[in-house]
């Protein structure tokens, strides 16, 4: 690790003030909470902050469930949220996405906020031995375009970056219209999760709309009929402890033999958690049958662009959507 | 000094030093070559840290970069916890913090100040092994042994969490611990034995 000063502020205001002095990206200061991603990034010299500001013990870690929905404190761990009875019963897609993420150890350490802010697993980003990575060193190029890109995104890419967003949780949450409570020095705001992560465009190093010094304080998820009938399907190279090649989060509101409303998001394929409104529109009013699901899922491919090794994801994504809709539709 | 009774660890240290592979001093964090060349790799101000390990309080002065794993191994000489990958992927470093299993290589020591940490050294009661330790011996749950302490710490947590109800469930909930010898069948059997003995087998 590059040398850093470790700040252990007494309260959140002090942490926000410390961090606000620094800029947004490649900042001389960074936050650390659960640390499961940050310590990897530090160990591999991907991040080299001069100052690390600890949020340990400073952020809300409560899980609150009410008639309006869920409020997940940013410091609640993946394990705590996955095991919460209301999450399991009313928001199964969240619990399933979490239990299919990482390992039991990491789920005990990693926080909600950190999960949404984890950096991509693109091997060119993670390995400083490669000089070309616009996310790590703005303007240096993209080694994944034309390189080994089996793991990379097919939706939302740009000529500067094709790295996939790695969070399963974010895919589940974006399907459920979650929102992020953001805290900064002297201010507070709420951002819909769908607007929280940015497309890479010409600035892939800027991944979210967080301003310098701001933190995720909490995540809110509205309670809906669709959330109760929801499912997360993760397709990966081994059965456990692996990132998604492709994943699908599906939430359905069903009226008799027809889908009244569908919410669909996909992971492993997007540069950010990817919602599919056209697929949802095609499923609204559709009968519960596989042919209808396949026709709707085909619309997911409209904007998809493969880069060689990851071309198979375009077909696999559609099949994952179909299977996840079937599973959710079969739920009582 | 009349007799030479080196521990296994002393021998390892000696071997490494004579091989010229280990720099002087108890622990030197991996240095970035380019940063060193620029002269910006000066050690940051050390921090005072209190670690509660296996019921004993230890007051340490640590480089902020020190992970919990390195604090255990290099500063407290509790070398039961192993460093495999150092990146949270192999599970050899698994310890319990406040009763929950974690990867000690992904925790900065200064950020677990005051928490209750249990390592493999804290499992046995005197000469009496923890039931899962005994089960690992009984079932031959290892070959080279490098992953074993991490497997046992994760297994203890797996049983306590109620995730040891079936072989399949154990495999799923032990997936954060790799064994490159491939002793998985015996590891799973040992955890099943210990779970049954603890009467904690649950449906599911």
Keywords:
heterodimer; A: 332 residues; alpha+beta; Uridine Diphospho-n-acetylenolpyruvylglucosamine Reductase, domain 2; five-stranded antiparallel β-sheet; 14 helices; 12 strands; B: 204 residues; Ubiquitin-like (UB roll); DNA polymerase, domain 1; 7 helices; 5 strands; 33% helix; elongated
Distance between the termini of chain A: 50 Å
The count of strands of chain A amounts to 12
Low-confidence segments of chain B = 11-39, 200-204
Query: What is the CA-atom radius of gyration of chain B, in angstroms?
Result: 19 Å
Strand proportion of chain A: 15-25%
User: In percent, how helical is the residue content of chain B?
Assistant: 25-40%
According to CATH, what is the topology of the largest domain in chain B? Ubiquitin-like (UB roll)
* CATH class call of the largest domain in chain B: Alpha Beta
Which percent range describes the beta-strand content of chain B? 5-15%
- The total domain count of chain B is 2
Compressed to H and E, one letter per element, the order of chain B equals HHEEHEEEHHHH
**From the helix content, strand content and strand pairing of chain A, which structural class follows?**
alpha+beta
The succession of helices and strands of chain A, N to C, reads EHEHEEEHHHHHHHEEHEHEEEEHHH
- The CATH architecture term of the domain at 225-330 in chain A is 2-Layer Sandwich
Tell me what you see in this structure.
The complex is a heterodimer of chains A (332) and B (204). Among the domains of chain A are: 5-57, Uridine Diphospho-n-acetylenolpyruvylglucosamine Reductase, domain 2 (2-Layer Sandwich); 225-330, CO dehydrogenase flavoprotein, C-terminal domain (Enolase-like, domain 1). Chain A contains 14 helices and 12 strands. Chain A has helices spanning 12-20, 38-43, 78-82, 85-90, 92-99, 104-109, 112-117, 123-126, 168-175, 193-196, 225-228, 277-283, 290-298, 312-330; strands at residues 5-7, 29-32, 51-54, 63-66, 69-73, 179-184, 187-192, 215-222, 230-235, 246-255, 258-267, 274-275. In chain A, the strands form 3 sheets. A 5-stranded antiparallel β-sheet of chain A has the order 4-5-8-6-7. Chain A has a 4-stranded antiparallel β-sheet with strand order 9-10-11-12, with helices on both faces. Chain B is 33% helix and 12% strand. Chain B has 7 helices and 5 strands, in the order ααββαβββαααα. Chain B has helices at 8-18, 33-37, 68-75, 131-139, 148-161, 167-173, 184-197; strands at residues 47-53, 56-62, 94-97, 100-103, 116-118. The model of chain B is unreliable at 11-39 and 200-204 (pLDDT under 50). The chains are: A alpha+beta (332), B alpha+beta (204).
């Amino acid at each position: 690790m590059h040398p850093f000063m470790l700040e252990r502020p007494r309260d959140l205001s002090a942490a926000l003030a410390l961090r606000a002095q620094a800029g947004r990206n490649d900042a001389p200061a960074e936050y650390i909470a659960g640390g499961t991603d940050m310590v990897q990034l530090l160990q591999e010299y991907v991040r080299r902050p001069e100052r690390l500001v600890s949020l340990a013990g400073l952020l809300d870690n409560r899980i609150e469930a009410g008639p309006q929905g869920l409020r997940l404190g940013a410091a609640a761990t993946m394990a705590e949220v996955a095991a919460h009875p209301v999450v399991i019963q009313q928001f199964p897609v969240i619990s399933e996405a979490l239990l299919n993420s990482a390992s039991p150890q990491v789920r005990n350490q990693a926080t909600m906020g950190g999960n949404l802010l984890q950096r991509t697993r693109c091997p060119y980003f993670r390995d400083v031995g490669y000089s070309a990575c616009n996310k790590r060193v703005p303007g240096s190029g993209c080694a994944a375009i034309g390189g080994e890109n089996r793991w990379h995104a097919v939706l939302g890419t740009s000529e500067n970056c094709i790295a996939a967003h790695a969070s399963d949780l974010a895919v589940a949450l974006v399907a459920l219209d979650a929102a992020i409570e953001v805290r900064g020095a002297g201010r507070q705001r709420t951002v819909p999760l769908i607007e929280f992560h940015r497309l890479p465009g010409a600035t892939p190093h800027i991944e979210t709309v967080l301003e310098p010094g701001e933190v995720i304080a909490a995540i809110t998820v509205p309670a809906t009929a669709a959330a109760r009938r929801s499912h997360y399907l993760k397709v990966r190279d081994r059965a456990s402890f692996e990132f998604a090649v492709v994943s699908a989060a599906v939430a359905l509101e069903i009226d008799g033999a027809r889908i009244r409303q569908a919410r669909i998001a996909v992971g492993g394929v997007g540069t950010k958690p990817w919602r599919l409104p056209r697929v949802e529109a095609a499923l609204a009013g559709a009968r519960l049958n596989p042919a209808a699901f396949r026709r709707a899922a085909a619309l997911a491919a409209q904007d998809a662009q493969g880069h060689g090794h990851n071309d198979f994801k375009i077909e696999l994504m559609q099949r994952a959507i179909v299977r996840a809709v079937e599973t959710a539709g079969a739920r009582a | 000094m009349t007799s030479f009774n080196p521990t296994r660890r002393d021998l390892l240290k000696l071997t490494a030093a004579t091989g010229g592979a280990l720099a002087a001093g108890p622990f030197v964090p991996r240095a970035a070559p380019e940063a060193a060349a620029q002269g910006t790799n000066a050690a940051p101000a050390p921090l005072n840290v209190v670690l509660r390990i296996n019921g004993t309080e230890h007051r340490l002065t640590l480089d902020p970069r020190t992970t919990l794993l390195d604090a255990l191994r290099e500063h407290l000489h509790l070398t039961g916890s192993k460093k495999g990958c150092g990146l949270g992927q192999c599970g050899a470093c698994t310890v319990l913090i406040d009763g929950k299993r974690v990867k000690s290589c992904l925790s900065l020591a200064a950020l677990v100040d005051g928490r209750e940490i249990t390592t493999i050294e804290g499992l046995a009661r005197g000469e009496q092994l923890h039931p899962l330790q005994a089960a690992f011996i009984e079932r031959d749950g290892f070959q080279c042994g490098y992953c074993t302490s991490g497997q046992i710490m994760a297994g203890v947590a797996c049983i306590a969490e109620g995730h040891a109800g079936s072989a399949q469930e154990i495999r799923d909930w032990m997936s954060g611990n790799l064994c490159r010898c491939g002793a998985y069948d015996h590891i799973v059997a040992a955890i099943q034995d210990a779970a049954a003995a603890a009467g904690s087998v649950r449906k599911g």
